[in-house]
Amino acid sequence: MNIDKSIIFSPCILTPSTSLNEAINLMTKAKGSSCQVSYSDHRIPTSKNVSQTSSCILIVENKKLVGILTERDLVKLTIQGKILQNTVISELMTTPVISLPYEEFSDLYIAYNLMRRHRIRHLPILDIHNYPIGLVTLSSLRQTLSPRYFLRFREIDEVMTRNVIWDVPSTSVMEIAKKMVFNKVSCVLLVEDKSDILIPLGIITEKDIIQFQSLELNLKELTAEQVMSCPLFCLKPENNLLQVYQKMEESRIRRLVITGEKEELLGIITETDLANMIDPIEMSGLLEILQHRVNQLEDEKAFLLEKQGLELHQALEENQFELYYQPQFNLRKKNVFGAEALIRWNSPEKGRIPPTEFIPLAEKIGLIIPLGQWILETACKQIKDWQKEGLPNLEIAINISSKQFHQPNLAEEILNILNKYEIEPQCLKLELTESLLVQNIDMTLEQFKILKKAKIEISIDDFGTGYASLGYLQHFDFNTLKIDRSFVKDIHKNLKNAAITSAIIRMAKQLGFQVVAEGVETQEESDFLYAHGCELIQGYLISRPLSARDFSKFITALSEKIK
Ligand code: C2E
Ligand code: CA
Ligand code: CA
Description:
- The chain contains 23 helices and 23 strands.
- It has three domains: 5-145, CBS-domain (Roll), CATH 3.10.580; 151-277, CBS-domain; 319-562, TIM Barrel.
- It has an eight-stranded mixed β-barrel with strand order 14-15-17-18-19-20-21-22, surrounded by five helices.
- With 563 residues, it is of the alpha/beta class.
- The longest helix is centred in the middle third of the chain and has 38 residues, at 280-317.
- The structure holds ligand C2E and calcium ion (2 copies).
């Protein structure tokens, strides 16, 4: 059984022939621990902090539960005018008792539903011999179900009881007790009757009545005014139920009075009203549905990832990837000095898929390593082919993902490919994002050293979008900074972008880095960059990324134009 045992209390147990005096003593003074009770040997572990006085007593005869005595029963006694000493429990106890066998107590909601259906505050838990081994109370349930979350958005107005049982303070306590029993309520409010409105002054509860009785006070002679609890704990109808909950917790009370603008009585809200707000069936049903949906989504996601993973593997095997090249332009020399290689996936089923959609997955499933190799190899072969075609020497920038970069043999592998195609390391440039530089710093620094030794250049991509400052970046030996396109956008109009970009350009120059501006789309952006000292640009203004064939046509056409 998987239930929170903290809601099960050790019950106070007496026999039917015990005098009522003793029962009242127990209910008014005794703490759970000092109950003069016998427990069964196979008692279940129950809550240790039984700090509240016992609001009910279970009546046991021949080791079986035969009745229950609650505060309400004792209030009844008061108005019957019986003498306590001469009355025994069996004359007053409620029987039969609504109870729950321990084996059926599989979750809290079963207990909660029983209590709600039968409008009871106490639910004895029985062993197989019908002996009460524990007690669940509405208060303990309410605390366990901690309704904080769903009470927040509900207003008092929705749930408070408007039909409040009230009287004036000059009434005798006996009359008040009668009113309680007659109306089946656990408290009566004392008010000042101002004909059109009622001003609440105090409250008398079942518990008070029992207490006065145990002190052997004459309830007919006592007036409500002499014994009522005041001041009252009040809230406004627009307060939410969470506030009610918190106030009850902090003041250790079970009911709050709701007053209007003129402090007039509007209603009352009790612990039971709060507990009734939690529809356990709804809640457990909802949770189940949600959990089911989450599981379903996770299954779907795992399935999709696996499927896409398989597709990616297949795409590599079947040569569905292609490298595109976006020209990089020198504004001063008016020539293309290089290109960035950008991968494309031509899926026979889904068409052209952008890298932002599959590179993260390739990283996740480790495919980025063989894919990265393919990119390097393809780019190097292309460089060689263009050289053979007689195109001018170009620097080709290749994007390297984090996993790829942290491979220990990356430099070696690159050098092998360069050797294979007989090209100079200066033809290649690696683009790394800033975020890569802030993880695994020792390994990154080591890799930089090896690449530097192999004369392979490094660019910092998307500069400005990560965590790294230029000061931090100085620790790494790189050659080029690529200003992210978000800073380039509308740079001639956007003051913030203008300030950031011109600062980056200035600092980079001081530190001896090259600067390339990415995503240049308009002539105005280009002019601004050039005027502020950045002469290398890449973007749609020059050209979109092109297939290898289109790229070579583009270069040829451009050089003819310049001639
Ligand atoms: P990135 O490295 O920042 O690449 C630049 C992206 O900006 C490219 O998108 C390019 O097409 C786009 N772009 C270029 N000029 C402009 C412009 O003027 N305006 C606008 N709005 N966009 C422009 P693409 O090709 O979709 O690549 C997206 C990202 O995918 C790349 O961002 C890069 O992080 C990654 N990626 C692309 N190819 C590879 C690759 O071969 N290997 C790895 N590891 N990542 C790659
Ligand atoms: Ca890039
Ligand atoms: Ca970029």
